[in-house]
Every structure is written in C-alpha cells, then in structure tokens.
Design brief:
heterodimer; A: alpha+beta; three-stranded antiparallel sheet; 10 strands; B: mainly alpha; 0% strand; globular
C-alpha cells in the first residue's frame, strides 16, 4: 500500500455495525495503514461504584451483577468472594460446586459469543450462526436452572439460591456432551479453514514482552505465551489443579484458538464435577460487617476480575472494580498500529472488549484520587 | 417485443436475489425472508425520504441514475428468449464495466470517507475481475470462431476450467462470496451506499439485482447449452445455486488478497482452457 502524504482521521464508533458496545476509537490513517489510535471510552459510564457505596451489601450484589451482561456471574462471584472474606464467612461445599459450574457455563457461552462475533467480523456469517445456535444449549440450561438467560442471580451472600436437582443434572450432561462434539467439529473445520487463516494469521501481533509489560490478562495474554490464570495461581472455589491453555502465536489466530480450546476445557470441567456433595446451600450471613477490607480475584471469561471492598457496617465505604477489559484497553494501541484499516474490526473483536464492564473514571490530581460529582462532570465535558 | 426483456429482467433479478437470501438463510440454520422480499424492499425504498449529505454537488444526484441506466442497457444485450442480439461480445464487456465504474463513481460523489473507501475498493476489484473474465471470453471467441453472442450460446462448449473461472470472477463482479469487500458491512458501514437513501438507494439495489440476473444468465447460456426457455431458466437456477453455495462457505478476503487471488490463481485457471482451445 503506497504511502500518501496526508492522513485522514476516521472515527470508529460510537455507532458502528462492527461494534457490539459503545466505544470511540479515532484512527489516524494514511491510505489503508493505521498510524495512530486514540481511545476515548466513557460512553457507558453509569456511576456504578458510587451507587455501590450507597447500598447495603445485599442490594449491592444485584447491582454488581448488572455491570455486564455476558460476565454477570463473574462479577457476582467476585463481589461475594470479597465480601465473604471481609466478613470471615465460609460458604458450604455444595454452594462452591454450584458456583463453579455456573462460572464455567458462563465462560462457555461468553467464548462462543465472541467466536461467533469474530467470525461475523471476517464476513463468515455461516459460522456466526452456527456458534450462536450452539450457545443456545447453554442458555437453555441457565433458564432451566435460574429462570433467566442473562443476569441469573445464582449467588446470595453466604451461598447460592438455586439447587441443581437430578433432572437438571441430566440436562447439563446432555448439553455438555453435545457442546464437546461441536467444539471438536469446530476445531477440525473452523480453525483449519484457509480463508480464516488468511485473515487472522500475523494480524494484530502482541509480543510476549509487551503483554507482560502492559499487564494484559486473560485469554489475550495466554495467546501471547504469558501463562497467567487466576484459577491456577490463586485457586478459589473448587479449582484445585487447573492447567491454563497457553499458545505462542501472539496474533488474532492464537486468541481464537485459545478461546476455542477453553470451550472444550470448560465443558469437560462441568462434566467431571457434577457429583455435588450433600450439604446445605447457604450459611447465615449478617449484614453488619466489622471494619475490614478484602480483595476478591476471579477469572472472568475475559481475564482477571478484581474487587476491593472496604467494609464498615451494612453499607460499604468503598468498592473498587477493576475489570479485565480495562487492562485490555492498554493493548489497543500496540496491536492496531501499522495494521490495515480492513483489519480493524477483527483485531478489536479479538481482544474481547466488554465495554460495559470497563468504564470507570479516576481523576488523579497531584497524585491523590478524587471522586467526581455529576456537576463537575458536566462542566468538564462541556469545556473540552 | 424485445423491449419486454427490461421488466422481465428486473423482475427475475429480484426473484433471484430473493432465492439467494432464502437459501443462504436455510444453509445458515435460520428461516430467512420470503422469496418476494426484494420486491417489498423496492416498494419500501420508493416511499422513503431522501436525505442528502452536506457538500455534495450535482454528480451525487446524477450517478445513481447513470448506474441504473447502464444496467438496463446490459439487459438488452444478453441472449435470452425474445432478444436476438447479433452484435459483438465486446459490447457486453464494455457495458458490464460501465456498470461497475458508475457504481464506483457514485461512491466517490458522496462527500463521505466510507463511500470513498467503498469506491476505490470497487475499482480495484473491477480491475481484478476483468482479467479472468476477458480470458474466458477470448476462449469462447476462439472456440466458436465468431464474435457474436448468439453463436456462443449455440455452440458446443465443454470448457470446465473456463466455467469455474467464469463463475468465480462473476462472484467477484457481483461483490459476493469471498469478495464482498466493497460493501463490507463490518468495516465501512455500507461502502458506496452509505449516504444514499430512498429512491437513489432503490436504483443501486435494482442495479445489483439486474447484474445478478445478467451474470447468471450469461453463465448458463454460454456454458450449459440451454435449448428452450424453460431449460434456460432451470440451468440459470443451477448456476445460482452454485454461486450461493460458494458464498456461504467462505470468509471475506482483504482487497489485496482478493486481487492476488484473481490475477494469479483464477486467471491461470482460465488460461488452461485458452491454451487447450488454441492447440486443438
């Protein structure tokens, strides 16, 4: 592609058919090559951290689930983990098993959603529809278990609210076996397809050093050779010997492969752990927590999710959420520089952006953190 | 009487587009729109408001009309039923290039970066598809020893490689299949058609439908030797089915990859048959 003297600034978003959520990327483009990227998030900011520090913990749980639609159980799980650690409460074994099963099912449906979306970005609509059809098996399971397809409030502080009865167990087994067959089929046909390889190999390269320096988490890091998975380094719930899937490809193709293999790994995990111990479902939990602070870390489908809770009584003093997509924001610039405009959607989609999770505002002034009020925010945005 | 080809060609083109959408949907495990859907789309676009962007000149209003006109002119040249055009095949090549060029110019005439990208991609792809297309036409000329289109349809053409190359280059001309780069929805919103709405968009939509009809018909007419009109329609549907299958199973190529593919893989494929016809 010939070098042209002048450059265009083209906007990608906030509205774009390729984006599933609202984010604004401004590209400086010369011909078909990208010279620089300017990232402007903030369209999905809803003031959640402020709202969380005004509600008691049991109401805050339902709010934290709705931070994101696809990784909603991961948020609920991390919130419960942090608050239960602050209150020094231990949940029963059966609740741990149920929470892990729901977490792995969520990882399944999130990865299949993303693989379908990535296929759609390259123009392969057939595979998009096939992946989303297979995802319906998991959504039916959720509906059977909890009554909802998204924002299934399985957790409550101290345990879980729904039980996996024998007929649900049979349905889970059937669905997982079908998903494992389909995952094998996709590994044989989708990953080895020639047009897919042409569009995704050597695109969106992120070297292992950059991934470690920029502290990228989740499947994005594991596709660049960085072996980092919270289920292995700091096991929680019932993950005791988890082996993370690592690939050394460092490009978009590697990220697709890692997620497809994790689909199989999650389905196998659910099949292996369906013998639940016979205990009760929740322990009594009193909302008045003595002054304490705690941290909850879990592996959401997109990477490490981190909740910091500072508790003092019924209403928390501060809750800080760091979502994995926030770490992936740092990745946009090195992964997009020097690539072609035609590859923008597939590269952005391969980092698995869940923008709804990731919009937080921190104003750092003279090294001290400050919380912004609504009037100040209006003034700040109108003066830019 | 041969003027009747124009409404018949438009109607059949819309039906072919409808069959395409229905079959693609069925292959993708969904139900899809009814076969008459493109006709509903045309009627709907007729009554929609036309919004023009800022900073466009008179060419913005002119080029969609020219695109549609050149597509209608191609309809008068194809060998179908009541039409007996005994002129040269060069007119067919010229008019098909004219359709794509005017499409690209319509994209340039909108004052929009996405139209600009769609337009230059259309031109690059046009240059890419013309080479295999012309090699196949030259093969047919040498095989039948004449330049007239009617003689192509009456001759006995067993040219498998040329048939494959012709179908693939038609997919590229129609912006379908692995070559749907100029209207890549996920990258450039709608490419050339981004800033067109209402009746101007209807003209571009009709041009796509007419081009589909024309290219499917000439593929069936040149290579599958139809005898009667009913036979011709059935063989066109077979060609349409092959093109639909090809579109469903592939992802989208990038513009440089598609150009290399057309010039260095498909054109040599067509050359095999050319050399075979020259030597025999």
């Amino acid at each position: 592609m010939r070098d042209i003297d002048y450059t265009y600034k083209i906007p990608f978003g906030p509205q774009h058919p390729a984006l599933k959520e609202i984010i604004h990327l401004r590209f400086e483009v010369s011909g078909e090559q990208i010279i620089s990227v300017d990232l402007r998030p903030g369209y999905m900011h809803r003031g959640i951290e402020e709202a969380l520090s005004r509600r008691p913990f049991n109401k805050g749980l339902y709010l934290s689930e709705r931070i994101c639609g696809i990784c909603s159980h991961a948020h609920a799980q991390t919130f419960c983990q942090a608050v239960e650690k602050a209150a020094k409460v231990e949940i029963p074994e059966r609740a741990k098993y149920i929470r892990s099963i729901v977490a792995e099912l969520e990882r399944l449906h999130s990865h299949m959603l993303l693989l379908g979306v990535m296929a759609h970005e390259i123009g392969f609509d057939t595979v998009f529809h096939y992946f989303w059809r297979d995802r319906e098996y998991v959504m039916d399971l959720f509906e059977m278990l909890t009554g909802n397809r998204v924002n299934y409030s399985v957790n409550c502080l101290g345990g879980v609210r729904f039980d996996i009865t024998d007929e649900i167990k049979k349905e889970i087994e059937n669905a997982m076996e079908r998903i494992m067959e389909r995952a094998e089929y996709y590994e044989k046909s989708f990953i080895k397809d020639a047009t897919i390889k042409k569009r995704t190999k050597k695109i969106g390269y992120l070297s292992k050093n950059s991934a470690e320096e920029l502290s990228i988490v989740g499947p994005n890091a594991r596709a660049s050779g960085v072996k980092y998975d919270i289920r292995e380094t700091k096991p929680y719930l019932i993950y005791d010997n988890h082996k993370p899937i690592v690939d050394n490809g460092c490009d978009v193709y590697a990220r697709m492969k890692v997620r497809l293999k994790e689909v199989r790994q999650s389905a196998k995990f659910v099949l292996d752990n369906l013998d639940l111990p016979e205990t009760r479902l929740k322990t009594p939990f009193s909302l008045n927590i003595k002054p304490n602070e705690a941290v909850g870390r879990t592996e959401a489908p997109r990477g490490e999710l981190f909740y910091y809770v500072k508790a003092n009584g019924q209403v928390p003093e501060r809750i800080k959420v760091r979502t994995p997509t926030f770490a992936a924001y740092h990745m946009f610039s090195p992964v997009l520089k020097g690539q072609y405009v035609a590859d923008i959607p597939i590269i952005v989609a391969s980092t698995d952006p869940c923008i709804a999770c990731a919009d937080r505002i921190i104003l750092v002034e003279n090294g001290k953190e400050k919380i912004v009020t609504k009037e100040e925010l209006c003034q700040y945005s109108s003066s830019r | 009487m041969s003027i009747l080809i124009i409404p018949l060609g438009i109607f059949l083109g819309l039906i072919y587009a409808g069959i395409d959408r229905k079959l693609t949907a069925r292959m993708q495990n969904r139900i899809g729109p009814p076969v008459w859907q493109p006709i509903y789309d045309i009627v709907k676009l007729w009554i929609k408001e036309e919004v023009s962007p800022k900073g466009v000149g008179p060419l913005y209003y002119l080029f969609p009309i020219l695109t549609f006109m050149s597509a209608v002119l191609v309809l008068l040249v194809i060998p179908f039923g009541p039409v007996h055009f005994s002129g040269d095949v060069f007119l067919l090549i010229y008019l098909l290039v004219m359709v794509s060029t005017f499409m690209a110019l319509s994209g340039f005439a909108t004052n929009n970066y996405f139209g600009f990208i769609g337009a230059w991609r259309t031109i690059v792809q046009l240059v890419g598809t013309e080479l295999p297309f012309i090699i196949v036409i030259i093969t047919l000329i040498l095989q039948t020893d004449s330049l007239s289109i009617m003689d192509f349809t009456k001759a006995y053409n067993i040219l498998p490689f040329a048939f494959i190359a012709f179908i693939i280059s038609n997919q590229a001309k129609l912006n379908r299949g692995p070559f749907h780069i100029p209207d890549a929805e996920t990258e450039i919103i709608a490419g050339i058609e981004t800033e067109y709405s209402g009746r101007r968009l209807m003209l571009l939509y009709l041009t796509h439908a007419i081009e589909l009809f024309v290219l499917v018909s000439i593929t069936a007419a040149f290579f599958l030797m139809p005898l009667t009109v009913l036979d011709f329609l059935v063989k066109s549907l077979v060609v349409l089915f092959i093109m639909i299958c090809m579109r469903v199973v592939v992802a989208r190529l990038r513009i440089d990859q598609s150009f290399k593919f057309l010039w260095f893989y498909i054109a040599p494929l067509a050359l095999i048959d050319l050399i075979r016809v020259v030597l025999l």
